[in-house]
Design brief:
Elements (H helix, E strand, L loop, with lengths): L2 E5 L9 E3 H4 L6 H9 L4 H7 L14 H19 L11 H15 L5 E5 L3 E5 L2 E5 L3 E5 L5 E7 L8 H17 L10 E6 L4 E4 L1
Parallel strand pairs: 7-8
Antiparallel strand pairs: 1-2, 1-5, 3-6, 4-5, 6-7, 8-9
Helix pairs in contact: 4-5
Length: 203
């Protein structure tokens, strides 16, 4: 899922529209974010400003084939969670289907008291901007009011990739509080699910 920020009111702001995926670049390199999004310096011009050290942005340099595979795995997981999966709809090898099954099994371990919202759009305001986002999954416990937000990732786990991932989950958590879908007096559990490595990282 991704987030899109739109300007809701006529305020004097530098960034009237910005995706939170791009905003999360602040976690990686604030200077590059400023040059690219505020100063509007092109990528070519930025490369001239960069010295020997280059900045790698996690989800922007992946090969198309990897991106397409990730999209299909996400779609399969979503359909399995919604229980509307048809075997021939998504062209994936058995190994990828097994990985998706593992991820969904981990989600189901939350129990029957949780209601799952997979790839469901939420809209909320923050700092006079309307944010529209589609979390991979958020789950709400009807008995206790507890909430969890999950983000499914394909590819190899790397500590360097985590800051922008957490940034997006924090944004979604703010949305659940803002919309009163989660209780203000209870923390929201954030889960990064690395499907290929069958690894969960939680906050």
């Amino acid at each position: 899922g991704g987030l899109l920020i739109k300007k809701e009111e006529s305020h004097s702001m530098l960034l009237p529209e910005l995706s939170v995926t791009r905003l999360s670049q602040i976690e990686i390199c604030p200077r590059k974010f400023y040059f690219s999004n505020v100063c509007k310096i092109s990528e070519e011009e930025l490369s001239l400003l960069e010295s020997a050290r280059s900045v790698q942005l996690a989800d922007f340099d992946a090969p198309v084939s990897s991106a397409e595979r990730g999209t299909k795995v996400h779609e399969l997981i979503s359909q399995l969670i919604k229980s509307d999966y048809l075997p021939d709809e998504i062209d994936l090898p058995k190994t990828d289907r097994d990985k998706a099954d593992w991820a969904v099994e981990k989600v189901r371990e939350l129990g029957e008291n949780y209601k799952f919202y997979s790839e469901k759009q939420i809209k909320f305001e923050i700092f006079h901007y309307m944010i529209s986002g589609i979390p991979d999954l958020y789950a709400l416990n009807s008995q206790t009011g507890e909430a969890e937000i999950w983000d499914f990732k394909t590819g190899r786990f790397s500590e360097d990739k985590l800051p922008p991932y957490w940034f997006q989950l924090y944004a979604y958590a703010n949305g659940l509080f803002n919309l009163e879908l989660a209780k203000q007096d209870q923390p929201i559990k954030l889960v990064l699910c690395f499907v290929d490595e069958e690894k969960l990282v939680e906050k």
